[in-house]
Amino acid sequence: MKIFGDVSRRRVMQLGAGLAGGLLLGSTLARADTLVDSVVPATDEMAKGIKKSGKLRIGFSNGFSGNTWRTECLEQMKIEASANADRYDFIVVDGQGDITKQVNDIEDLIAQQVDAILLIANSGTAVVPALRKAERAGIVTVPFNLPVDGEHWTAYLGTDPHQKGMILGEKLNDMLSGKGKIVGFDGLPGNSYSAGVWEGAKPKLGPGIEMLALKDAYWEEDKAKVIMADLLAAYPQIDGIYSDGAQMAVGALRAMKAAGRALVPVTGDDYNGLLKFYHAEKANNLNLKMSLVSEPSWEGIIALRTAVKLLSGESVPKRQTIKPTRIDGDNYLQYMKPDLPDGVFVDTTLTDEQLKKLFS
C-alpha cells in the first residue's frame, strides 16, 4: 500500500493476547444485566484488589465530552452509580480535550484521596506519571476505552483497537476490490486508540490501495465534513473512506454529496447517523458500501464494576476485552434507529426512551 500525507503513528500497547482466533463479536446489543457475556479476559494476568471499608469514592477523569458517544457513556455510568449510591460516591471531571488539563484533573482526584480513578485518556503517554502517583498513593486505577502505555494502572478494559483495524482494513480492501485512492479519519490528535486501529488496518490494505491523507477529525461529524470538503478540492479521485468512527465517515459522505461526487465505501462504528444515511442513499448510490465494528458505549459500566470488585478485595483480569458488534449492509436494519437522532450510538444499554430523553 502506498501512503502519502500525515499518516505516521507511534506504536501502542496491543490488547488481545487471548484473541488469537480473531475478534470476538457480540451477536446482540447489550443490556446492563447481560454485560458479563460481552466481556472476556485478554490475559491470564490478574490484578490484585485492595479491600476498602466504608462508603467508597470513585472518580472518573473523562478526557473530553465533545461527542455523543461520550454523552451516552457518561449517562450509563451515572445510572450505574445511582443504582449503587449506597456503596460509593461518583465524582466526574472533564479534561475538555486538553492533555494537560486531564493530567491536572487526575492529580486533583489524587489530592482528594479518592479510592479509585477511572479514565478515558486523551494521551496514553501523558497520563502515565499521574497514574504512577495514584499507584503509590494506594488508589485503584482503571483506564478504559483508550489504551494507556506501560503497566502503572490496576486494570484496563476496552475493545481491541488493533483487531478492529484488521477487520476494517480487510473489509475496505474487499469493498474496493484491492485498488483505489482513499482518505482517512482519526479521532483526537495523538490518541492511542486511533493509532492502534490504523496499525491493524494498514497491513490489510493491499498494494493497489493508495492513502492520500489521514486527518484528525476529533470523532466529530462536522469537523470531518469540513476536512473532507478540502480533500475533495485537493483530490479529484477518492474511491473510499477509512475511518475509525462512523460519525466522521458520514460527515465525509455528506461533504461528497454536497459536492456532487459519487458516494464511496466507508468504515466506522455504530453511529446511527451513518446507518440512516446509508439507508436513505444506497438505492441511488450503488457503490456506497459500509463495514462497521461497534464501540460499545457501556464500557464505563464495566469499569465501575471492575473498580468496585477491586475495592472489595477481589482479583480481576489485568486486561479485559469488550466484544463489539459487526454491522454492514446486510444486517444494518437490525440496529438502525430511524426515529432517534443521528448522534445515537446503537450498541448501548440505554432504552430508546432513555435515548430520546438524553438527546431531546
Distance between the termini: 44 Å
Structural class: alpha/beta
What average pLDDT do the residues reach? 90
Structure summary, number of beta strands: 16
**Biggest β-sheet description:** 4 strands, parallel
Provide the number of structural domains.
Answer: 2
Order of helices and strands: EEEEHEHEHEEHEHEHEHEHEHEEEH
Known CATH architecture of the largest domain: 3-Layer(aba) Sandwich
Rg result: 20 Å
Label the overall shape: globular
Strand order of the largest sheet: 1-10-9-11
Q: How much strand?
A: 15-25%
* Number of helices, where a helix is a run of at least 4 consecutive DSSP H or I residues: 10
Task: Give unreliable regions as ranges.
Answer: 1-29
Specify the CATH class of the largest domain.
Alpha Beta
For this structure, the CATH topology of the largest domain is Rossmann fold
Name the CATH superfamily assignment of the largest domain. Answer: Response regulator
Helix content: 25-40%
